[in-house]
Amino acid sequence: MKPTDNPKTYRVKSFGCQMNVYDGERMAELLEAKGIAPAADGEEADLVVLNTCHIREKATEKVYSDIGRLQKAGKKVGKDPIIAVAGCVAQAEGEEIMARAPAVGMVVGPQAYHRLGDMLDRAVKGERSTDTDMPEDAKFSALPKRRKVAPTAFLTVQEGCDKFCTYCVVPYTRGAEISRPFSQLVDEAAKLVEAGAREITLLGQNVNAWTGENAKGHAVGLDGLIRELAKLPDLHRIRYTTSHPNDMTDGLIAAHGEIDKLMPYLHLPVQSGSDRVLKAMNRSHTAESYLKLLERFRQVRPDIALSGDFIVGFPGETEDEFQETLNIVDAVGYAAAFSFKYSPRPGTPAATMDGQVPREVMDERLQRLQAHLGRDQYAFNKASVGKTCDVLIERKGRRAGQMLGKSPWLQSVFFDSDLQIGDMVRAELVHAGPSSLEGRVLETATA
Ligand code: 5AD
Ligand code: SF4
């Protein structure tokens, strides 16, 4: 494609967290508002947005190899795609990418992507541009309206992080904590529901740090927002992620015992079970304060499914300290979890700490940790067999005729029945696997 050709098709490839998925959807809407259509499956797009993640591993190398692959694939069909690099790698390493990869026409950070349209106009003229500004709150009001959405939708309510855990790049790539205004969020949620969403997951790097002012001008926390959204008649389920132990409020804990639409699931990363490691991570909670917090959730909602994030091999982590992580896992009994090997991130304090743990040690610890976590997830699933619950059908399963949805506890439940995406089924959970359950439909309603 010559630089002067207007792109007709686009593809947004999002990596990493759910917030990137949300950002990716908003960029897609923006491109569609400019008359660009999604590329068909298997077709090379005229414009590709690589919406990148910088949190772990060799993020930057992956971007370069993706760029190479796109150029090669484009050549085969005789076009030169316009490539945009977005997301956290763009924020952290944008200038270097521009210098090293001439094929990239645009570099746009997570707080600046509402300007992608203008950047594209320039790219079409052959002008390359970088925008990694962090203007406060301009992005959301500048984005186009929400379009038709799936039964489950994400809604970013809070962005950025002021916690500065010593291993993490997020405070640098996503900037300081900001909360989107209450009225803007209620409005966007209503539009998502109108467009077909039946479940909304509120997103934020520190989602439970969200604060705002309700319609009466009263200061409210995340529970106040959840209470308001629960009033939307066609919205059946509300979730939120990711929370920080230090921002947990009495109101949010209480909400789990009071609001039926708030699902019985809490993702609360702990990272390590060792107080020495937690301190070195700058987590500002202890293993004990974390466990006490979970206990309070269990008091108001005894069936709550708990989930967490873990890092093994943080600099200086000893075998005994790792054992403390296994102990906390055993004490909690997680329904789900995400566990990672520590990955030094450029510019973070931990990257230059003494006692970097050898890769083989990390591999071995991760394996042991995952054995405990897998065992607990399977146990949680087995304990669910015989329960009756609602399942919101989200997509087709892998086998022909199979449909897949989520239980209130965020377990995947599959059915060999004739169901539609968006159905809310009353189901009995009849069989448990390590990471999913089989359901039997008792009753179907179009949600
Ligand atoms: N190395 C490994 N894991 C990390 N995480 C964040 N930064 C790093 C890192 N440098 C994990 C944490 C966090 C999750 C989103 O990613 O567990 O909660
Ligand atoms: Fe990163 Fe810590 Fe902020 Fe989470 S709380 S985004 S791990 S700095």
From TrEMBL:
GO molecular function: 4 iron, 4 sulfur cluster binding; metal ion binding; tRNA-2-methylthio-N(6)-dimethylallyladenosine(37) synthase activity
UniProt xrefs under SUPFAM superfamilies: Radical SAM enzymes (SSF102114)
Keyword Membrane tagged: no
CC cofactor note: Binds 2 [4Fe-4S] clusters. One cluster is coordinated with 3 cysteines and an exchangeable S-adenosyl-L-methionine.
Residue ranges of domain MTTase N-terminal in the record: 8-125
EC number assigned by the record: 2.8.4.3
Record keywords, A-Z: 4Fe-4S, Cytoplasm, Iron, Iron-sulfur, Metal-binding, S-adenosyl-L-methionine, Transferase, tRNA processing
Domain Radical SAM core: 147-379
Key word S-adenosyl-L-methionine present: yes
Location of the TRAM domain: 382-443
Leading EC class: transferase
Positions with a binding annotation for [4Fe-4S] cluster 2: 161, 165, 168
Reaction catalysis annotation: N(6)-dimethylallyladenosine(37) in tRNA + (sulfur carrier)-SH + AH2 + 2 S-adenosyl-L-methionine = 2-methylsulfanyl-N(6)-dimethylallyladenosine(37) in tRNA + (sulfur carrier)-H + 5'-deoxyadenosine + L-methionine + A + S-adenosyl-L-homocysteine + 2 H(+)
GO cellular component, one term: cytosol
Coiled-coil residue spans: none
Required cofactor names: [4Fe-4S] cluster
Entry binding sites for [4Fe-4S] cluster 1: 17, 53, 88
Protein localization: Cytoplasm
Family note: Belongs to the methylthiotransferase family. MiaB subfamily.
Job of this protein: Catalyzes the methylthiolation of N6-(dimethylallyl)adenosine (i(6)A), leading to the formation of 2-methylthio-N6-(dimethylallyl)adenosine (ms(2)i(6)A) at position 37 in tRNAs that read codons beginning with uridine.
Known partners and oligomeric status: Monomer.
Protein known as: tRNA-2-methylthio-N(6)-dimethylallyladenosine synthase
